[in-house]
Amino acid sequence: MSETNSAADSAAPHRYTAAMAADIEARWQDFWDAEGTYEAPNPTGDLAGDPELAAKPKRFIMDMFPYPSGAGLHVGHPLGYIATDVFARHQRMTGHNVLHTLGFDAFGLPAEQYAVQTGTHPRISTEANIGNMKAQLRRLGLGHDKRRSFATIESEYYKWTQWIFLQIFNAWYDTEADRARPIAELVAQFESGERATPDGRDWSALSAAERADVLGGYRLAYASDAPVNWSPGLGTVLANEEVTADGRSERGNFPVFKAKLRQWNMRITAYADRLLNDLDGLDWPEAIKLQQRNWIGRSEGARVDFPVDGAGSVTVFTTRQDTLFGATYMVLAPEHELVERIIPAAWPEGTHPVWTGGHASPAEAVTAYRKQAAAKSDVERQAEAKDKTGVFTGAYATNPVSGEQIPVFIADYVLMGYGTGAIMAVPAHDARDFAFARAFELPVRCVVEPSDDRGTDASTWEDAFASYDAKLVNSANDEISLNGLGVTDAKARITEWLKERGVGEGTVNFRLRDWLFSRQRYWGEPFPIVYDEEGIAHPLPESMLPLELPEVDDYSPRTFDPDDADTQPETPLSRNEDWVHVTLDLGDGSGPRKYRRETNTMPNWAGSCWYELRYLDPNNSEKLVDPAIEEYWMGPREGQPTGGVDLYVGGAEHAVLHLLYARFWSKVLHDLGHISSAEPFHKLFNQGMIQAFVYRDSRGIAVPAAEVEERDGAYYHQGEKVSRVLGKMGKSLKNAVTPDEICAEFGADTLRLYEMAMGPLDVSRPWDTRAVVGQYRLLQRLWRNIVDEETGQVTVVDTEPGEETLRALHKAIDGVGGDMAGMRFNTAIAKVTELNNHLTKAGGPLPRSVAEALVLLVAPLAPHIAEELWHRLGHTESVVHQDFPVADPAYVVDETVTCVVQVKGKVKARLEISPSITDADLEAQALADPAVVAALGGAGIRKVIVRAPKLVNIVPA
How many domains does the chain have? Predict the structure, then answer.
C-alpha cells in the first residue's frame, strides 16, 4: 500500500482499510464454504421435498472454461468471472435458483511442452496450476458451487468424454429423418436389404473389413486419410489455428507441410443446415452469429460432371453454372485423389511448353508441383498473388455443354477444403482464373455480356468481368440456348438441362469441413478404440471406461528434419508397447483377442464440448447426466426453444471453433435421446478485454511497466526514454498486474468494483492502477456511513427517512436493479455512488431501513463488505439469499420536471411542472407565463404544439 494510503488508513482504529478488508474477506469466504452458501439444489431429491424452492425460476450461469496457466491470473482474466458472479448474486436475490460454478480445461499443449522441457509429468504441473488458480479465484469472493467443480483431466470426467465419443462413433446421420440414429439401425437396414450396399452385394457376402469400410462412410466419427498440417520439426500434426500465415508452426517457427495421414474425424458437416438454421433461435451477438454463418458457408449451386477418358468424371461444385459454356480448362487441388488416375505416361502431342513446367513427363511435373504446394499454408495458397502457378496433368476433360476437350491442371489456389477440390475455370468472369489463363496462354471466352464498352472479344480484355446482373451470350448448343437470359433464369435452365442428361444437378455446398479430431500428443484423452489384426476399429465397451493414459518416459513426439515432408509422426503413446498391444475380450462374442490401441489422443477441444452437462450432475458415475436434472437446468422452455445455458460469458475469440464444436456434440446427444437440449448455450455474452500500456525501449523490447516513470508527458525506464502503446496485458509484455497485488493493497471488493466500473462490460478498456483508489474510497465512505470509525459501533437509527432521502433511495433501487439485470454494472456502480454521496452529504446517522437497503444494493458487487455490514446490522442469515430491494414507484417519479417553452423555435421559458400534467393544463400554464406573454407581444397564436411534460412550442400567427 502507498505511504499516503497507509497513513490515512491508520488514523482511526475501525476505519475500513486493506488490512480490515483482508480480514473480512477471509472470514466470510470461510463462512460461505462451511455453510455451502452457493450450493444450488438439483430437482431430484433437493427440490422434491421443498415446494417453495421448487417454485423458484432457475438460472444456469456459466463462464467459458479457463485453462490453468502456470503464469497464474493477471487482472484481465477475472473480468468475466466477476461479471457473472455479480449477475448470479443479483439473480439469487431476485428469487432464482442459481447454478454458478467453474471447472478447469486442463488437457492441452502448454503442460505437455513443460513436461518435454523438464520431465515433470503434465498432471503434476497442471494440478499445481489449478491449485494456484483456485486460490486466486477464491480470494475474489466468487460465489461458485464448489461441489460441482472438476478438471477435464480427472478420469471420472474423461470417462464420459470417451463415452460421448463412442456414442458419436456408433451413430450415423439419417438425412431422411434429419437426425442421428444408432449405427445398429443402419446395419439392420443393410441386413434386411432395405438399404443396398455400395456395390449391390448382400451384406452377408461382405467381409468384416468391407463392412467396416461401408459403415465408416456413414459413422459420425470415422477414420480417414485426411490432409493435415504436418510439422516434422515438432513431430506432430497441427490445427489450422496453430499455423502462421506464412506456413510455419506458431510454436518453434518450423515449416509446415500438407500431408495425408490416417486421422479421426467428426462428421460435423452432416449438421451444417441445422447448425445454421438454429442460430436464429439463440440470443447471441449478431457478430458471432455472422462468423458462424460465414464459417459454415452455405451456398446454392450445381454439381457438374466433366468426363475424363479412362478415369470416370471430375465433379465440380459451382455457384455460376450459367457460365458453363465459358469453361475453357479445369483445375484440381494438388491433393485431389483423381490426379494419379488421370495423368498419362507422356505429354500429349502438341502440349504447350509453358504447361509442363519444364518437366519430362506429367508424373514428374505433378510430383514436383505437389511438393512445392505442400510447403505452403492454405492462407498463402489463397492469397491474391500476382503470379499464378500450376502444371498440366496431361489429361483432358469434356465440357458437358460444349463437348470441347479442355485441359486439366493442378494449381495451389484450389483447395481440397472447399467444394470438391476441383473447379471449372471460366477465366473471362473470374479474376483468379483470368490471371491463370493469361499466365498459361489459355483461351478466355466471354459468356456474360459486359456492361462497359470492352466488347465480347475476351482475348482483348485486361481483366475479368464479373456480374450477376447481365445477359448471357455465346452460350448455346444444339439442345439448349442461354443467350439473352439473365443470370438467375440461366442458372435455373442449365441446372434442369444437366439433371435431365445425368451430368449434374442443383445442390447445396458448405464451406464447413469435417472436424479433424486426432492429435499426435500425450496429454489428451485416449481414444476408446482398438484395432484387430485386420486393422478394423472396435469400440471399447462402457465397462472398460475410462481408458486412462499410461505412464511414459518421454513426453515428446519424435521430431525429424524440419524440411523433410516425407516423414510420419511417432506419438509418445506408440512407444509404450505394453499399453499399445493388448489382449481383450470386448464382449462381442469373439472371446479374448489381440488388439492394438489407438495411439493418437483427442484434441483439447474434446473436454470443453460438453462440460456444461457435467456441472449439472458432477458425481454421477452411472449416467452422463440424470435426465430430470438436465431437463430442469437446460431443457427447452418458453423463449428458449432449443434449451441451453441461460447465460454464457466469454471472449469473442471462441466464436467459431469451441462454440461450433459444442453445438455439434449437443445436437448428436439430443438426437440419440441422451439430453433434452439441442443447443448448449442459449444466451451468449462476449466481455471486452482489459488492456494495459506496453513500454518498449529503443530496441523494441518490452520493459517492466511498473518501473517506468512519466516526466513532462514522456516515459522513461532507468533514464532511457521509452515508447508507450496500448495493448494486451501479459507476462511476456511485462505489463501484467496480478489480482493478488490489488487485493493486498485495497481488498478484493475494491478490485471487483473497479473492474465492473471501468466501462461497459462488452467494451475493451485500459487498466490504470492509480484509478483503483476511487472505488476503495467509495467502500470507505459506505463503511463510514454505517460504522463509527472510532468505536466500531453501528450508527444507524430506527427513524423514518425524509422525503428527499426516500426519493434518492428508491431511484437508486430502481436504476441499480435494472442495470444489474441488463449487466450494465458500471452504471449500477455510478448509481450506488450517487446514493452513498447523497447520504454522506445529508449528514447524521442513517435510518436503519436506508442502511439495510444500501447494503443489499451493494451485495452483488462487493459481497464481503456487504456480508460484514449485514451481520453488524443485526442479521444472522447471509446477505447472499436476501431479497433485492424493490423500488416504490411513488418515489421513483420526479416530483416535478422541467418543461421547455419555445416561441418561434427559441426558448423563452422553463416551467417546473408535475410529470403527470395533461396537455391542456400544460398549454394553459405555458401561455400564461409572463416571459411567454412578453415574447408574443400581443400577436395571435396560429398553433401550439404540446409534448407533455417536456415541451411546448408556440407558433405565432
Answer: 4
SS3 assignment, position 284:
coil
Query: Mind listing the pLDDT tens digit for each residue in 672-727?
Result: 999 999 999 999 999 999 999 999 999 999 999 999 999 999 999 999 999 999 99
Per residue in 570-585, pLDDT tens? 889 999 999 999 999 9
Range of the domain at 929: 894-956
| Euclidean distance between CA atoms 778 and 782, whole angstroms | 6
For 787-792, the CB contacts below 8 A with 24+ separation are 787/14, 787/16, 787/869, 787/872, 788/14, 789/12, 789/13, 789/14, 789/15, 790/12, 790/13, 790/14, 791/14, 792/13, 792/14
Cα–Cα distance measured from residue 264 to residue 828, given in angstroms and rounded to the nearest whole number: 50
**Amino acid (1-letter code) at residue 550:** P
Domain final position from 891, 913, 943: 891
> In which residue are the cell numbers 473447379 written?
423
d(C-alpha 148, C-alpha 617), whole Å: 8
Mapped onto helix, strand or coil, the DSSP state of residue 504 is strand
Q: Are residues 408 and 347 in the same domain?
A: yes
**Average pLDDT score, the chain:** 93
Whether residue 524 sits in one domain with residue 415: no
In a domain, 335, yes or no: yes
Judgement on whether residues 383 and 454 belong to the same structural domain of the protein = yes
Q: Tell me if 761 is assigned to some domain.
A: yes
**Does residue 951 fall inside a structural domain?**
yes
Q: What is the CATH number of the domain that holds 319?
A: 3.90.740.10
DSSP reduced 3-state for 72: coil
> What CATH number is given to the structural domain containing 810?
1.10.730.10
The rounded distance, in Å, linking the Cα atoms of 807 and 790 is: 31
Banded model confidence at residue 131, pLDDT cuts 50, 70, 90: very high
**Per-residue confidence (pLDDT) for residue 7, from 0 to 100:** 47
CB atoms within 10 A of CB 379: 13
779: helix, strand or coil: helix
- 568, three cell numbers: 510420419
Same domain, 784 and 864: yes
> Based on C-alpha coordinates, what's the Rg of the chain?
35
- CB atoms inside a 10 Å sphere around CB 38: 25
Distances (CA, A) of 331 to 314, 334, 391, 396, 498: 10, 9, 9, 11, 21
636 in any annotated domain: no
Residue in 860, 864, 875, 954 with CA at minimum distance from that of residue 907: 954
What cell does 695 get? 513500454
Q: Residue with C-alpha cell 458453363?
A: 324
Residue 857 shares a structural domain with residue 938: no
Tell me the one-letter amino acid at 348: P
The predicted model scores a pTM of 0.87
Q: Which of 527, 499, 866 is nearest to 491 (CA)?
A: 499
* Average pLDDT rounded to a whole number, residues 633-653: 96
The HSE-up count of residue 428 (CA atoms within 13 Å, CB side) is 26
Grid cell 496457466 is found at 69
Q: Can you tell me the distance from the alpha carbon of 679 to that of 644, in angstroms, rounded to the nearest whole number?
A: 5
The CA–CA distances, whole Å, from 832 to 11, 221, 295, 805, 811 equal: 26, 54, 43, 13, 10
Burial class (CB in 10 A: 0-12, 13-18, 19+), 723: middle
Residues 478 and 338 in one domain: yes
Q: Could you tell me the CA-to-CA distances from 403 to 392, 444, 504, 638 in Å, in that order? A: 20, 17, 15, 58
Domain match, 876 and 900 both: no
Question: Which residues neighbour 639 within 8 Å (Cβ) at sequence distance 6 or greater?
Answer: none
Query: Last residue of some domain: 849, 870, 891?
Result: 891
Same domain, 505 and 526: no
951: burial class by Cβ within 10 Å (0-12, 13-18, 19+)? middle
Helix extents (H) in 557-709: 577-580, 611-616, 627-634, 657-671
